[in-house]
């Protein structure tokens, strides 16, 4: 095991003793996609990733397979894996699926959210505000996505949470491809308002606010934008620095 993975394992095992090398590699790649540091269409070389993370290609393959199940990575026979690149039609289907999912999630969250979960989400919004103030776009995008995943945790429904994780990451790919503005993707004020009505147990208000929130996100899409770098070593430069 490399020094990086030893250090990462030592840190994460304090909260999750069952964390594996597969989980760590998966987490790094998932976060890079969520932060839009890995743009759609990026070739995910098993050899390069194995070198970056200091693990076997078997571990890399398992992490990529897990991401392919979540539909954020596409595995092509005899050609390797790439970050998924949704077409316009696929993007519209994903956005509709997310709308249905998010509306169900906030309704259930208004019934089941605990004070601890509300407090956790409010802390995430504060972190998101801080990232926006520092123009840390990648971090603010990731925190926004994690906020929506945490809403699914509030719903107290494991299948919904699994689906939400996949849809949030797929929407990050859609934003990377098709958004006209590369600034803030979610309104922190809207996140706070959502938490207020969820905490109050107002299901109808939560559904209405989420619909408006998603409309604001979708209104920024022009369905033809594309940008980013496909250099794996540049994307994971932070990992390589830790290994040095």
Automatic annotation (TrEMBL):
Protein name in UniProt: GntR family transcriptional regulator
Domain of life: Bacteria
CDD domains the UniProt entry points to: WHTH_GntR (cd07377)
Naturally occurring in which organism (per UniProt): Grimontia sedimenti
Record's keyword terms, sorted: DNA-binding, Transcription, Transcription regulation
Residues covered by the HTH gntR-type domain: 19-86
Pfam family, one: GntR
Listed GO MF terms: DNA binding; DNA-binding transcription factor activity
